[in-house]
Amino acid sequence: MARNAKTAHVPTPDVISIKPTRMDFVFGDNVPRHWAFNDPFCTHFMGALSTLFPVGERFFVDSVRALREHVGETVTTQDISGFIGQEAMHSLEHVSMNNMLEAKGLPALKGEKFTLGLLNLGRRILTKRQQLAVTVALEHFTAIIANRLLTDTNIMDNLSDEMRPIWMWHAIEETEHKAVAFDLYQNVPGSSYAERVVFQVVATVILAAVVAAFQVWFMARDKQLFNLKSWAFGLNTLLGRNGVVSGLAKEYLDFFKPGFHPWEHENSALVAYWREKLNGEVAKAA
Ligand SMILES: [Fe+2]
Ligand SMILES: [Fe+2]
Prior knowledge:
This protein is mainly α and 286 residues long.
């Protein structure tokens, strides 16, 4: 297999297995209006992310599936099937969640449609390998956000009981499969460090613009656009000292090292810990 010689491979830790789980979360009328930090901004930030997931994860699946013949020692057919299965389940569950947001009067479905238009443009103008490079870039985001969700208990503690399990479950599985697209990309002929980082920059700019636009859109629909207290609290939570986004800077930038590999952030111990907690949450909700 043609591997980019500069990129080190760090094997997936033995404790990790990449298996899809069907959750069938139900989001009823009892979900509070502001289910994250009891705050509109934080709720709509996470809602905006959820709006991206169903169509985004379908794009990830398609880009991996299109080049799955490049499996090898570092990434197996089983890993690919696990990745596809997990992302397909995430799409389904976030569809349920987004339908709940829509029922609350938020523009989740229009947001999905807009995102799909953007991704379809990518499908038209990018090669299969470049589409996989976009997936690799965005999977880095999901991996570092997931790590933050699983290490900063203040975030989990401030989600309502109805909403905590889906984020817990999604963060666990994003951690489990965080290297699959990356390792596959390394095997694709013509893949390079330069291409990987160029698409990271492009993906970052587009993601930031879309999330910011959705944030404003959701706040406006919720009649919270001029809730300055919420903007101040939310922006500080995201971008203040060690904020949810600003605190990711180091891990984000690690992607730009030529020898970077997702498992050099060795956080596999979080998976077993949170799987057990998730089982407890699901049992409590049943
Ligand atoms: Fe996912
Ligand atoms: Fe993922």
